[in-house]
Amino acid sequence: MDDPAHEPVLYKEIIHALRPRSGGFYVDCTVGAGGHAFGILAACEPEGLLLGLDVDPAALDLARSRLAPFGERAILRRRSYAELAAVLAELEWGKVDGIVLDLGVSSMQVDRAERGFSFNKEAPLDMRFDPTQERTAAELVNELPEKDLADLLYRYGEERQSRRIARAIAANRPIRTTLELAALIARTIGGGKIHPATRSFQALRIATNRELDNLEAVLPQAVAALRPEGRLAVIAFHSLEDRIVKQFFRRESKDCICPPDRPVCTCGHTASIVEVTRKPVQTGDDEVRSNPRARSARLRVAERK
Ligand code: SAH
User: Fold this and answer.
1) How high does pLDDT run on average in the chain?
2) Which atom of ligand 1 is nearest to the CA of 30?
3) CA of 258 to the centre of ligand 1 (A)
4) What does the H/E/C string look like for 96-130?
5) How far apart, in whole angstroms, are the C-alpha atoms of residue 234 and residue 276?
6) How far is CA 96 from each of CA 21, 130, 168, 267, rounded to the nearest angstrom?
7) Which pLDDT tens digit goes with each residue over 260-275?
8) Site to substitute for ligand 1 among 60, 106, 111, most atoms within 8 A of C-beta
């Protein structure tokens, strides 16, 4: 793990949260370059198994070579984590001991200019994690009605100048490349502490990959897949993701979720998890210095009841 670009975020914290043991079954829903997966496999020697999922074949190639020393203990599939329950059923895995989700984009994906994730590297507006998917960011930028584009930038980028940006985009279509879009946004809203296109690029990436829908879909599947005392660890990289994880954990760790004004419980809900982290775990200064992706990371851990 000498290459800082591939340093897994909150690495020790993830291993600590999952407590891997020999004979255990683990799932890395976002295997990426295999950083966390490597640590989990090393910690559950000699007989623990790890299933690694990713929709990006380039990521799976990296994971395959990094995890080669573990032989058949590492099982990799090019599938979305939104299909977690189906993949586990296909493999005839029963309940599992630990599940990791390290959300968002990998350093490898940002570094490869041609993927279109970066606003300072010239490339077509792609931003797909899954290169076989049809919808790209270019399609959203060039084909959405101005109003829908403004809503998208506001909702997924928390961009307060979403209307101005959407108006400028609509007036300058077609926009073909990352630098063209970044320059247009910079001209439209001017600079602040962060690059003016940061929030818009985040919004387009989330929408292109339906990231929040996939996260909403996987959380209940992950809890259902865990055996009692099995653990789910999720690393979020922005407030929209973290809010979804936080609210899901809060709700699933309560027996009753009736509105507070109801005198008796009518919901029949029972808690399925216990929250291990009341507050999210964040990265220390050292890690942020060596790995910029870690800056906004927030880890939450839950244990199955
Ligand atoms: N933990 C990894 C890095 C993960 S980065 C490591 O230590 O190397 C996040 C990864 O999630 C990326 O590789 C991205 O392609 C993948 N990803 C994004 N959406 C996904 C989805 N719906 N299903 C599976 N993987 C996904």
Assistant:
1) 95
2) 11
3) 35
4) EEEEEEECCCCHHHHHCHHHCCCCCCCCECCCCCC
5) 12
6) 12, 26, 49, 28
7) 899 999 999 999 999 9
8) 106
Q: Is 98 in the pocket of ligand 1 (CB under 6 A)?
A: no
2.160.10.10, 2.40.50.140, 3.40.630.30, 1.10.150.170: CATH of 115-208: 1.10.150.170
Contact 32, 62 (CB under 8 A): yes
Both tokens of 51, joined, read 């299933």
CATH of domain 11-108+211-304: 3.40.50.150
Tokens coding 64: 């395959």
DSSP letter string over the chain?
Answer: ---GGGPPTTHHHHHHHH---TT-EEEETT-TTSHHHHHHHHHTTTT-EEEEE-S-HHHHHHHHHHTGGGGGGEEEE---GGGHHHHHHHTT--SEEEEEEE-S--HHHHHSGGG---TTS--BS---SSTT-S--HHHHHHHS-HHHHHHHHHHHH--TTHHHHHHHHHHT----BHHHHHHHHHHHH---SS-TTHHHHHHHHHHHTTHHHHHHHHHHHHHHHEEEEEEEEEEE-SHHHHHHHHHHHHHHT-S--S-TT-SS--S-----EEES-SS-B---HHHHHH-GGGTT-EEEEEEE-
- Per-residue pLDDT tens digits for 188-207: 999 788 899 999 999 999 99
